Amino acid sequence: MSMSDSFIHDLRQALGDDQLLVHEQIEPRYKTDWSKASVCEPVAVVRPRSTEAVSAALKVCHAHGHPVTVQGGMTGLVGASQANDGDVVMSLEFLNGVQEIDATASCMTVWAGTPLQLVQEAAQAAGLYFAVDLGARGSCQVGGNIATNAGGNRVIRYGMMREQVLGLEVVLADGTIVTSLNKMLKNNAGYDVKQLFIGSEGTLGVITRAVLRLHAMPTETTTVLCALAHQDAMVSFLRRVRSMAGPSLLAFEVMWPDFFSFMTERVPGNVSPFERSDVMAVLLEVATGDAGLANDVLEGLLESALDAGELTDAAIAQSGKQADAFWRIRDSVSEFPLLFAPYASFDVSLPIQSVCEFVTTLKSQLAKDMACAQSLFFGHIGDSNLHIVVHVPGPRQTFPKDAIDAAVYELVKQYHGSVSAEHGIGTRKKPWLGYSRSPAEIEVMKVIKKALDPGQILNRGRVIDF
């Protein structure tokens, strides 16, 4: 029996045929992520149905020194779940479902393979609210959201995924099960071990279950689309909104003029409520009603911003349908592959005070280095997160991706920002990690990785090199 046959034999013995796919049984969906940037040939796909099955599979892989790529909903943007040839793919799709909702403690226990939308709906059915929301809510899985420390539109109010996790169950590379399904907000008994795994992109352990924090359901929300008078008014307007709205502020999304024009002129169905489409727009969402901001206070906020010359116009959504239409302008980024290809996209963080200067500098630099370059800017500026999309006309084969990457990340480094705000590092941002993390920080990451995965089998080649 060859070493490969012996390995598959041991996996089959540990799991049985119903949790293992090999050879022609392996469907194309396990071989690539949503981007279709590369296709691999895994040696096997493991689909565990319990934490114990995850442990059994990892024990075999650890004993054989065989690399494992952990997959969730495959909606990540940095290649963290894209397997390599010969890997074992561990798909968590069958670790799916809400195990318990504890309304008294305002938390829920879920399996890692549970789609985010199912979590949101289960919380809502219990009269509670799960705060993280992403465009991929129907496909992405909670385990992946935790492993990448997902963000989304309401970080300004509730924080990242890290702030929503009370407890975790994780299986280490050698099969050791670490169960810490804590439900308490206060628990200072030693190191908070779960924090190691949140944002680790599957490199330190496989998350199998999580206790998620829930919040009171916002009884009513109001969406406002605002037209800034000029770019430099953004910071003062944000200060005003924070001061007057306080914890009722749920979202502060900024769209620079080129982005807003693109979305309202080129994307079918999107319409600007303003006379002009080349405005710098801010999309506000605030909690209103009995538990939120009073309508007269919201109106006073907008009037004071208009009087101060920060805004030239503001449209308050008069219905849920109109609110959805405003959000669709911001969220129609799925149209880029159809209308803006070839392009490069970026997810970075910057000090809020420097964002506008960064945008102006980068646009100028790209125009100087690549005369035909078109760049669009938007993002969750209330929590420092800027998204950038750069298009250069021409065939994909000659698209200057490396030059664009260098221009963006060199400037991010210069402004003391982060090369990854909410998408993670994976394989695609790994060359730039040192632009945002010091050598000492990266060395600590390596020490942790070597301690928890000495055989380097989990998501090999992601985040850091050895």
Give a concise summary:
The protein has 14 helices and 18 strands. With 466 residues, the protein is α+β, with helices and mostly antiparallel strands.
Question: What does this protein structure show overall?
Answer:
The chain is α+β, with helices and mostly antiparallel strands. The protein has 4 domains: 3-91, Uridine Diphospho-n-acetylenolpyruvylglucosamine Reductase, domain 2; 98-216, Uridine Diphospho-n-acetylenolpyruvylglucosamine Reductase, domain 3 (2-Layer Sandwich), CATH 3.30.465.10; 220-333, 2-Layer Sandwich (Alpha-Beta Plaits); 340-439, Alpha-Beta Plaits. It is 31% helix and 21% strand. It contains 14 helices and 18 strands. The strands form 4 sheets. Strands 15-12-14-13-17-18-16 form a 7-stranded antiparallel β-sheet, sandwiched between helices. Strands 5-6-10-8-9 form a 5-stranded antiparallel β-sheet. The longest helix is centred in the C-terminal third of the chain and has 15 residues, at 355-369. The protein is globular. Keywords: FAD, Flavoprotein, Oxidoreductase. Its cofactor is FAD. Belongs to the FAD-binding oxidoreductase/transferase type 4 family. Residues 38-217 form the FAD-binding PCMH-type domain. This is FAD-binding oxidoreductase.
